[in-house]
Amino acid sequence: MPDQVAARCALVLETNNLRGGADAEARAGESLQRLVALLAKQKLPLSALAQVVITHDGLSPATCEAVSALAGRPIDFVRIDASTGYYDAKNAGFAATDAQRCTHVVFADADCLPDDDWLLQMLLPFTKGADAPAVVAGRTSYAANVVGTALTTIDFMYFPNADHAGATSNFYANNVAFRRDVFEQHSYQALDGVYRAHCQVLGMRLKAAGVPIHYAAAAHTEHRLPDTRAEALKLRWMRGQDTYSLTPHLLRSYVSPRWQWLAKSGPIGPLAVLFTRLGFSMKALNHQDLPPLRGLRWLAGVALILGFSAVDMLGAFARGIGWHTTGRTNADAQALSYHRP
């Protein structure tokens, strides 16, 4: 039963994506409280979990007290340094979970809005006894409008693992659960100058290690967009820059040895990856469990996919010719503003 798994499960929630914007500390507290109020209404209540951990770099005691009250249960708040990156924060949250009580750990983001049965659907696969998976990936999307649907085909695609039925080859760090020993063995590794590609690399490492990732499409969460258009444009640029660092990993995992030279081809390899992704994005439109776009809305969606992909390609091209704008260290500590209701 899900409640029996929940009794041995921890939820780790990081707040790195709430660092950005003006008056960030106050707005981070408001955004976190809004999210925890949603989590408190889950069909599988937070009180059923063995532990809830929230990492932060400066929430006030009053905010922590308010969040705990909304959760209706004790929360372990873990203070991290302001320079701690997004993935290191998740590792730190995992390290704060109780190894004796928590055999499973669910990871979520403070800038996502989960469906009311998200936690229940995330833990259901772990109830299958000997057939239970070691890793479960939920489904993440943006809002179900034209912009969100177009961006979902770019940022949140899931690729089937041909070796395992019902498994995906990739996952996203905002919506995933691990058996404790598996995450302890693999975890997130340092990738210098990379903003948000660590989970993709971990997905490839898990696939190479023969660890299938079960895809639970019903465990859905909605990722918010940055608060301003300027930050949304910056996000696209940084994702394009990430493609340069991600390309060697993709080539090693999915491409024959005769194409490995693309890893040292400057902008050619990353652009090839992004052109390939563009094809997948076009095919994914109206096939991602979101309301379908028809007529002029479909044309608008196609135009947005092309436009957003073009900005990504510009970022990748710039990185390929030596213009590295995300910083060579702690790139994933950079924060945009995700506070919109």
Give a quick set of tags describing it.
341 residues; alpha/beta; Spore Coat Polysaccharide Biosynthesis Protein SpsA, Chain A; 9 strands; globular
Question: Can you walk through the features of this model?
Answer:
The protein has helices at 2-6, 24-39, 61-71, 86-95, 118-123, 146-155, 180-186, 198-208, 229-254, 268-284, 296-320, and strands at 9-14, 51-56, 76-79, 104-109, 112-114, 135-141, 167-168, 175-179, 213-223. The chain is of the alpha/beta class. The chain has two domains: 2-227, Spore Coat Polysaccharide Biosynthesis Protein SpsA, Chain A; 230-328, no CATH class. Strands 1, 2, 3, 4, 5, 6, 7, 8 and 9 form a nine-stranded mixed sheet that branches. Strand 2 (51-56), helix 3 (61-71) and strand 3 (76-79) form a beta-alpha-beta unit. Helix 9 (229-254) crosses helix 10 and helix 10 (268-284) packs antiparallel against helix 11. It is globular, with a radius of gyration of 19 Å. It starts with a helix and ends in a 21-residue tail after the last helix. The model has no long low-confidence stretch (mean pLDDT 94).
| Main sheet specs | 9 strands, mixed
| Pattern of helices and strands | HEHEHEHEEHEHEEHHEHHH
Q: Which topology of the largest domain does CATH recognise?
A: Spore Coat Polysaccharide Biosynthesis Protein SpsA, Chain A
The number of helical segments is: 11
Q: What's the total count of β strands?
A: 9
CATH class of the largest domain: Alpha Beta
**Quaternary assembly:** single chain
Whole-number tally of structural domains = 2
